[in-house]
Design brief:
Strand content: 15-25%
Order of helices and strands: EEHEHEHEH
Helix content: 40-55%
Distance between the termini: 34 Å
Number of helices: 4
Structural class: alpha/beta
Strand order of the largest sheet: 4-3-5
Largest sheet: 3 strands, parallel
């Protein structure tokens, strides 16, 4: 898979969205010194996220994972509250990273958490 970069231009900060097979290698330099939370579901966790997370933990001192049951019911205020609780407990700030690893439900849940935490 080739790397695709999308630059979202906002003020005062621009955001990059990267789609790639080599996410750890591409992100490791950007993640140094930041906390990282990977949000995924049980199916993706068993197939891909566990290996991904182990590699991430080797690169990052502060890496956490939040796993939900698969399906639409994961998109709930309760799950969002649980994510906030983890982020608060681990003292995340607005500059730290949330990584979504999964499909639509996970992307929606992680995106909402990232866009609303400490805003």
């Amino acid at each position: 898979m080739k790397e695709i970069n999308i630059n979202i231009k906002t003020k005062p900060i621009n955001y990059n969205i990267i789609f790639t097979d080599n996410i750890i290698e591409n992100l490791s330099s950007n993640l140094k010194g930041y906390k990282v939370c990977v949000i995924t579901d049980q199916n993706v966790n068993e197939l891909y996220a566990e290996d991904f997370f182990e590699k991430l933990k080797k690169e990052q001192k502060a890496a956490y994972k939040f796993v939900v049951k698969p399906g639409e019911e994961a998109k709930s205020l309760k799950r969002l509250e649980n994510i906030y609780e983890l982020l608060i407990d681990k003292d995340f700030n607005r500059d730290d990273y949330i990584i979504s690893q999964g499909g639509g439900v996970i992307g929606d849940l992680a995106g909402l958490a990232a866009s609303t935490y400490k805003r």
